[in-house]
Amino acid sequence: MVSAHQSLPRVVVAAPASGHGKTTVATGLLAALRRRGLTVSPHKVGPDYIDPGYHALAAGRPGRNLDPFLVGADRIAPLLRHGASVPTPADIAVVEGVMGLHDGAVGRRDYASTAHVARLIEAPVLLVLDTTAQGRSAAALTLGMAAFDPAVRIGGVILNRVGSPRHETLLRDALAEVGVPVLGAVTRAAEVAAPARHLGLVPVAERAPESVAIVTALAELVEATVDLDAVLDLARTAPPLTTPAWDPVAAVGGPAGVERPRIALAGGPAFTFSYAETAELLTAAGADVVTVDPLRDPALPTGTRAVVIGGGFPEAYAQTLADNTGLRAELADFDGPIVAECAGLLYLGQSLDGVPMCGRLDLTARMTDRLTLGYREALAVTDSPVARAGEPVRGHEFHRTTTDPGHGDAPAWRWNDTEHGFVAGRVHASYLHTHWAGHPEAARRLVEACR
């Protein structure tokens, strides 16, 4: 049981912009601290699914997202406490930021930014700087980042991509002038990179042995270049958290009945995008949650009453998905509720880039050169297993595919005066990714729909 006031050492790993090395440092910190024998709770600002996979591998427990836009600002500290308390209490929480420190949702100033989350959880910031083409200006940049919002405390800097010992000395001297300690310096030669794809890093589940090797290398990199004792001292300056931990049982109002319907969540390399709270909320609402891998499992688990198919990269596995004809046929005829997001939408269609899929929905899908990305404020158009018509929901899109048609006769959502997605019988499918901690009634509604 978590106490009302929890002293949780914590630090936010941020940067002035994307590409400075946040994921390298955050993942390496998680792994290095774990190798010291500490229990580390990994978190990621924003909606991204891929970085938390690396965090989970490094920390040995689920990587969790902290996104005020998707779940509401009032849930951020409670979700942090929840993540840091299950399955066991953590000794420290490491939170990787998103984009630049002060970059928030478009048109909302710094709302949902790393700075916003750092304020909500009262955590000091460890700023990662790409110093490739910088000297003393790194100190000016750091000073400006700190002065832009005095409520955000930059407690130290990690110098990344340092060119030489002379370069490092110059940078350290400049930062000493502005009173910001340097807690580590990573040379360009020592940098470790994970393979990338059109939507970011390749997910951990797709390349497990290589991912383990990358995380091990990142741990060794951080151990050799970062003052871990100084990072721990910085994390311990965070004040106690006074907000109660988020509780999935309280969020859904307890089990939806005495029966425990079995709900299958898609997993495996093709469907890696799922928030940890989804399974927790379904379990709290009374479901028996199991996993199905559409690449390998020939059928749904025995007794499955509903299916949730989240996001991922089905385009990378289209032929293997097509070859699993038994599961495709079962999903085409499945009479229980099906909830599909993004990759799940593509999988339920007739084809993906000409390769046959489940055929449950009358649509075809194809890859494009255009990235569709951003937060969405949606309104449910049609009653479905996860939403009532007229219900507002926040989510995000993240894909390079398109479907023909873009929505069905009974659309799932409407945003920007346009209809999106499909509600066909007991199927709800669209490109919209949602975080059910932000609308936990979706979990309860799905469990009730199993009856």
Automatic annotation (TrEMBL):
<keyword id="KW-0547">Nucleotide-binding</keyword>
<dbReference type="Pfam" id="PF01656">
    <property type="entry name" value="CbiA"/>
</dbReference>
<feature type="domain" description="CobQ/CobB/MinD/ParA nucleotide binding">
    <location>
        <begin position="11"/>
        <end position="199"/>
    </location>
</feature>
<dbReference type="InterPro" id="IPR011698">
    <property type="entry name" value="GATase_3"/>
</dbReference>
<dbReference type="InterPro" id="IPR004484">
    <property type="entry name" value="CbiA/CobB_synth"/>
</dbReference>
<feature type="site" description="Increases nucleophilicity of active site Cys">
    <location>
        <position position="433"/>
    </location>
</feature>
<comment type="similarity">
    <text>Belongs to the CobB/CbiA family.</text>
</comment>
<dbReference type="Pfam" id="PF07685">
    <property type="entry name" value="GATase_3"/>
</dbReference>
<comment type="pathway">
    <text>Cofactor biosynthesis; adenosylcobalamin biosynthesis; cob(II)yrinate a,c-diamide from precorrin-2 (aerobic route): step 9/10.</text>
</comment>
<keyword id="KW-0436">Ligase</keyword>
<comment type="function">
    <text>Catalyzes the ATP-dependent amidation of the two carboxylate groups at positions a and c of hydrogenobyrinate, using either L-glutamine or ammonia as the nitrogen source.</text>
</comment>
<keyword id="KW-0315">Glutamine amidotransferase</keyword>
<dbReference type="InterPro" id="IPR027417">
    <property type="entry name" value="P-loop_NTPase"/>
</dbReference>
<feature type="domain" description="CobB/CobQ-like glutamine amidotransferase">
    <location>
        <begin position="262"/>
        <end position="439"/>
    </location>
</feature>
<keyword id="KW-0067">ATP-binding</keyword>
<feature type="active site" description="Nucleophile">
    <location>
        <position position="342"/>
    </location>
</feature>
<dbReference type="InterPro" id="IPR002586">
    <property type="entry name" value="CobQ/CobB/MinD/ParA_Nub-bd_dom"/>
</dbReference>
<keyword id="KW-0169">Cobalamin biosynthesis</keyword>
<protein>
    <recommendedName>
        <fullName>Hydrogenobyrinate a,c-diamide synthase</fullName>
        <ecNumber>6.3.5.9</ecNumber>
    </recommendedName>
</protein>
<dbReference type="InterPro" id="IPR029062">
    <property type="entry name" value="Class_I_gatase-like"/>
</dbReference>
<keyword id="KW-0460">Magnesium</keyword>
